[in-house]
Amino acid sequence: MGVQERREREREARKSTILDAARELFLEHGFNGTTTKQIAAKCELSEATLFFYFQSKNEIFTSLLFEGIDFWTQGLKKIDAIKMKPRAKLEELWNFYDQIREEHPEYYQLSAFLARPMALSNVSEEMKAEIIRRSGENFQIQADMLDEIVGNSEGRIVADLLWSTYLGLTLLQGSRTNLKTPLHPTKKELKTIFEMLARGLLGDSN
Amino acid sequence: MGVQERREREREARKSTILDAARELFLEHGFNGTTTKQIAAKCELSEATLFFYFQSKNEIFTSLLFEGIDFWTQGLKKIDAIKMKPRAKLEELWNFYDQIREEHPEYYQLSAFLARPMALSNVSEEMKAEIIRRSGENFQIQADMLDEIVGNSEGRIVADLLWSTYLGLTLLQGSRTNLKTPLHPTKKELKTIFEMLARGLLGDSN
Amino acid sequence: MGVQERREREREARKSTILDAARELFLEHGFNGTTTKQIAAKCELSEATLFFYFQSKNEIFTSLLFEGIDFWTQGLKKIDAIKMKPRAKLEELWNFYDQIREEHPEYYQLSAFLARPMALSNVSEEMKAEIIRRSGENFQIQADMLDEIVGNSEGRIVADLLWSTYLGLTLLQGSRTNLKTPLHPTKKELKTIFEMLARGLLGDSN
Amino acid sequence: MGVQERREREREARKSTILDAARELFLEHGFNGTTTKQIAAKCELSEATLFFYFQSKNEIFTSLLFEGIDFWTQGLKKIDAIKMKPRAKLEELWNFYDQIREEHPEYYQLSAFLARPMALSNVSEEMKAEIIRRSGENFQIQADMLDEIVGNSEGRIVADLLWSTYLGLTLLQGSRTNLKTPLHPTKKELKTIFEMLARGLLGDSN
DNA sequence: GATGAATGAGTATTCATTCAT
DNA sequence: GATGAATGAATACTCATTCAT
User: Fold this and answer.
1) Does C79 contact chain D (CB < 8 Å)?
2) Candidates C154, C163, C165, partner chain D, best to mutate (most D CBs within 10 A)
3) Between chains, do D171 and C166 touch, taking CB under 8 Å as contact?
């Protein structure tokens, strides 16, 4: 059934085209600030075609959400699998955050996005449940990893600290871009912050 | 003229009523997701009446922004004025964050809000400039305070760390509320996080 | 009853103030393009006060209409009363048109206004009837006068020609102002036009 | 591609339907007195559909303006091309006015419309410039034609007289319709008026 | 598969008018 | 008398979605 397979592949390619356009627009203008007309224009299709590939604007949106969550899952699982000393692994995790932020800012923004109170107000209850499940899974991976790193069951707390800090720093930079303030922390300063944090988390000796 | 004064007071009260309704809705659904109809319904006025007190939906929005920024300014200045040992002052600042978050979550959300890339896309250039100015002032107060606390000019970096962490933690909790995950960190865990941070910032001796 | 009389006088004065403001705005922007807010602002009263002196925006409008029609009636009756040779009287009438256009353009515009198909669409049937009655009276005075001037019962036709020409010329100038075309006919050219017309109406000998 | 051509034709037909409805309403109630709802109802389409064919209410309006101006241009050029004796040509022109008024009163009203002070207040500066240009062209054709007819360079003045008279007569009839006065001048009386005018313009001998 | 055409429900804002003081 | 406050109805225009082809 080569024909059917090719059709399937083509269908997925088209969906990708649409998602690429939508992702950019949703990130820049938010859900309500983005129109199907804009999405259609950006991917050079008619508005009607969008609805052939997705049931609704909302489905396009949740597709992007799942895509982002899955991206994180894959990265975290890869790190989890590596064998390393605690301090090194902590640094590895931190660097992973850094890397995603640089190479895939859209997936980074996603995390901040999901944290906003209004984030899921347009999403159906079923979808919401699924998003919750998958996001929780991601957090659990990090918490387990950090349990191991700090050598006790405070992993959950440390995960909170580490993750919040990074999330906060990202937002801070976003805010400074908005507010046209000089961008801080720089790459070097980020390193300093990590050292401070690591000292706090693991003690001076590490 | 008692009459005129009473009128003025009543007018301010009405504006407050509108702002209270609008604040809640904007926080929950964002600017584009909130309609003047919703605001009017929430404060039990007609839509037209909104426009008697504010020139536009945008003016309502920016009024809320300024209100929040000013609230922070006042609190920060109060702390800045207190004479204290570094470690104690650090704790004071941390507690201030905590207190606002508990007593005025709406002003807390504001900070996260301002960080979003699309946050100010509906705001006129003049207003944007003013928001930038006042927000920057708030950050400067914190940076200066922390310079003094850590005893060197790394205040800016420390301010970044402290503030990002707290901002991140807030978002984390928001995210967990959204995602219906059990709420962490708890009050006690927050204390632990602060200890870790303080150790990282000031060294073990403090 | 001096008090009551003074009150009456004051009331009329206020009405005049309002009408002055309204006249200017209606002429410039039309009925639908003029708002009660604008009228109130122009005469430095509150919108509500307008409704103390007039029942509605429509009543303000029809008041202006009657005012204008009456102004014409008075002028025409004055000319009618003068004893003169036909050609001189024709010129007198023409000059009267000219004078009103220069000194009271608002009353001149009125005539053009009344001629427009949509002119009275906002006016109640009773008011419309009254306007029709009084306008017809004005036309009758002119027709009778011209019967006498041309010495036969073709006055009605001549009145039509004379009046249409003048009305048309006024509109022509209005159109040229709108279209920023050089203004023609000039005062001198108007005289030439009158000569042509008079020759046509009365024959070469006059 | 027959399909594409048919689509194009259908699209033009729909635009025409909308313009027909709009023309009637604008003539009767003016720009501000006509709503998109009314237009939509009149041509049995939804309001939204109007905006699929035209960018704005204003674009509908200016489309009508251009349509009318072009109609005049075509007729005038046709007459200009005919070789005739002066008096005959003058009559030809007069009859052309008459014909348009009878067969296309909407294009006749247009001229009166353009003359109103507020006529173009809703039109963009670019459009206004274009309207001015094209209207001026029409007048120039008439002035040149009349220069030739009267045999000297007084064409401009004669054009003013002729055109104003006709414009005025149209308005007069409009006014009488409004005011429910018996309609004058009749067809026969119009002829008499023309004779008077022609005598005035060309002298008794013609 | 893809799209031009069509629309019901909504969007911020304005308007003439009313009413309590 | 005068006005600040309030509003129902309307206004031009937009949006996500549907459907015939």
Assistant:
1) no
2) C165
3) no
pLDDT in tens, C37-56: 999 999 999 999 999 999 99
User: Based on the structure, what is the number of domains in chain A?
Assistant: 2
Asked if B180 is an interface residue toward chain A (Cβ–Cβ < 8 A), one would say yes
Query: Where is the domain boundary, C13, C36, C54?
Result: C54
Out of A34, A54, A74, pick the residue that ends a domain: A54
Cα–Cα distance list, D96 to C162, D81, D91 (Å) = 21, 14, 8
Shared-domain flag, residues A22 and A117: no
CB contact under 8 A, D114 and C175: yes
Q: Does B105 touch chain A (CB under 8 A)?
A: no
Residue D33's SS3 state is coil
Does C183 touch chain D if contact means CB atoms closer than 8 Å? no
CA–C1' nearest nucleotide, residue A6:
E1
Numbers of helices and strands, H then E, in chain D: 9, 0
Neighbours of C168 (CB within 10 A): 27
Burial class from Cβ neighbours inside 10 Å (0-12, 13-18, 19+) for residue A81 reads exposed
Q: How far is CA C18 from the centre of its chain?
A: 19
Nearest-CA neighbor of B91 among B24, B128, B145, B50?
Answer: B145
- Give residue B113's pLDDT band: very low, low, confident or very high (50, 70, 90): confident
The domain containing residue C32 runs over which residues?
Answer: 1-54
pLDDT score of B206 more than 50: no
Interior angle at CA C165, CA C162 and CA C168, nearest 5: 145
Global confidence as pTM: 0.86
Interchain proximity A157–B118, CB inside 8 Å: no
CB-closest option in D120, D171, D179 to C132 = D179
